[in-house]
Amino acid sequence: MKIIVLPGDGIGPETMAATVEVLEAASRRFSLGLELIPDEAGHDSLARHGATVTDALLDKVKSADGLMLGPMATYDFKDESKGEINPSKFFRKSLDLYANIRPARTYKGMAARLGEFDLVVVRENTEGFYSDRNIESGSSEMLITPDVAISLRRITRQCCERIARSAFELARTRNKHVTIVHKANVLKIADGMFIDICHEVGRDFPDVSIDDFIVDAMMAHVVRAPQRFDVIVTTNMFGDILSDLTAELSGSLGLGGSLNAGDRYAMGQAAHGSAPDIAGRNIANPFSLVLSAAMLLNWYGQKNQKPSFLAAAKAIFDAVAAAIESGEATRDVGGKLGTRETGAALAQRLSAI
After folding, report:
1. HEC letters along the chain
2. Which parts of the sequence belong to the Isopropylmalate dehydrogenase-like domain (predicted)?
3. What is the pTM of this model?
4. Confidence at residue 253, expressed as pLDDT on a 0 to 100 scale
5. Does domain 112-250 have CATH number 3.40.718.10?
6. Which of 3.50.50.60, 3.10.450.50, 3.40.50.11930, 3.40.718.10 is the CATH number of 1-97+264-352?
């Protein structure tokens, strides 16, 4: 398996180095034959090539089997005419990575104020209110006058159907329940279509139960009792917000793995930002990126029917859980280790299996 590795900005190089160490240990232990190919995106690419991402890089990614994208300083990239392109958006749109899979679960060794839970948010990734990806050319966000701004939202049958199918297929491997999150009481046409299509797709999965919640009510229910949920499917912006909430409820946004997947390509990506204020201090939590890498291996193993990749992914998930329980972690999740030491401890656990 060839994986393009893009460390990113801020804490990205540190957390990616720890993640690469874990992937290399998993490759040795499970004979995966991983080929990790470093490249650059973000500020380094902007300085060297005049753009945060390049067409040449996209060609490399398309010829590989997967992509690992480190945290990016997206707030710094404001003018695409100057090469300041959001790399995350660029890859999601260029590779049609329509499903953002965001698990959230509690871990032993961390206080769970709401009790134990294990859920997954399945977020549509390519349309909705996000102006950088919901039209073919340009932006769907406009400044009509200095005092009037308009943002357009696109919802299509194709995107609703495929994200719903992704959610139901995932639910079949878990506890066989899907919750549809929407705002159809106000957005009657767009979210009305989304919820109707989700129920239509659900009829192909008679073994999976379904319920639905208006998004504001859903936030209250998740905070009150997250353990009642299994797989949550929703549109882009709602999923973006909800998945950060569920990750934090599990103990830390730094425990939120994230996979962006389409029919042909997939990209592992940490759920958090580039945190420039702590960059270079060896205190950043690498677990989110490590868990995202495990999700990428799992996706590849399922897609290509390779049991060794599935076993490696499970071993990484288990190693992270054991590390948190034993305190072999960074300070933000109850440990005393630095970024490098946390990555080394995880690699050692994998080597010792």
Report:
1. CEEEEECCCCCHHHHHHHHHHHHHHHHHHHCCCCEEEECCCCHHHHHHHCCCCCHHHHHHHHHCCEEEECCCCHHHCCCHHHCCCCHHHHHHHHCCCCEEEEEEECCCCCCCCCCCCEEEEEEECCCECCCCCCCCCCCCEEEEECCEEEECCECCHHHHHHHHHHHHHHHHCCCCEEEEEECCCCCCCHHHHHHHHHHHHHCCCCCCEEEEEEHHHHHHHHHHCHHHCCEEEECHHHHHHHHHHHHHHCCCHHHCCCEEECCCCEEEECCCCCCHHHCCCCCCCCHHHHHHHHHHHHHHHHHHCCHHHHHHHHHHHHHHHHHHHHCCCEHHHCCCECHHHHHHHHHHHHHCC
2. 2-346
3. 0.94
4. 85
5. yes
6. 3.40.718.10
